[in-house]
Amino acid sequence: MAQTSAVLFFSKPRLQSLLDELRTRGYCVVGPTIDQEAIIYDEILSVDELPRGWTDEQAPGQYRLRRRDDDAWFGYVVGPHSWKKYLFPPKTTLLSAEKTANGWEFIPRADDSTSFALLGVRACELAAIRIQDRVFLDGPYQDPLYRERRQRLFIVAVNCTQAASTCFCTSMKTGPRCEQGFDLALTEIDSGFLCDVGSDVGQDVIAVCSAVEATSEQQQSAASARQQAVDQIERRMDTSDLPGLLLGNLDHPRWKEVGDRCLSCTNCTMVCPTCFCSSVTEIRDLNMDRVDRERSWDSCFNPDFSYLGGSLVRNDTASRYRQWLTHKLDSWQNQFGTSGCVGCGRCITWCPVGIDLTEEVAAIRETSTP
User: Fold this and answer.
1) What does the alpha-carbon distance between residue 346 and residue 237 come to, in Å, rounded to a whole number?
2) What's the pTM value of the predicted model, to 2 decimals?
3) Mean pLDDT across the stretch 323-346?
4) For residues 301 and 324, is the Cβ–Cβ distance under 8 A?
């Protein structure tokens, strides 16, 4: 995507025009909304469904909504949902087979014609999408479902103006400002939205908002709002010796300590925007006349995920946590040329016992084997 240099501005009432234009172009618009006392991502038809005036307070093992002192539409951080489910669905039928008079007939997966427009994508989430692009699109073997959905994707990013206590995107160099990978990137200020255009189709879509070139005062207000998020980030992860640190300390006693706390519940991998483990299962109907081959999200925290040769390769929680963290922060670099962590902090917030991967890395570094 070629980003244009001019920064545009449009008033808040024009955001509905943007949603209407995307729907007119055939997109299913997915954005933030409130459900079950959390800010989640779901299809939205109106800006009235946005979490206007709400924010989220987060800490290890803690999440709650509270009212803001203003009516900001995007004044929250990130919730339990990530955008990966719209590109890499939690469950997919890959192939079906039906018994006929002439034997078994294979039925290919139906083409997926859904085009998604994602509204409210944060910088760390843009980084996560780029990481999954490497997993599913780079190299000789591509995932066709991911590729089909990715090619039809339209991204309206939103720069962070607030951070949670669990955020550490600055350590991972993934935010909080959106730099690339979007069609449009918005920064919310009191009077409206400043907009960076990142693609030709984004340029066409933004025309419906009657956007004008932003004034220097508006640009300064946007810069101050973005800096507020930077200033609020206190959590850090030292990445200077990653990769190498974790794989060089596979017998460190800290693995046993965190294993005693970990519930192996898989929450961290389910909320992570980059984790991509999956399993394929054959599902038969009761009459034994049809079989569906389904791919579902899985987790390296599930004991059976490491079942190989009649036994479990990782048969205790400590070894499963070690597998997850060393893969994400260490061996992922060798596989994909990047860390598997974007610093969104979801795994910290949604861990029932508040395990913090930044603390675990720091503890191993402090007493690591030379």
Assistant:
1) 15
2) 0.93
3) 93
4) yes
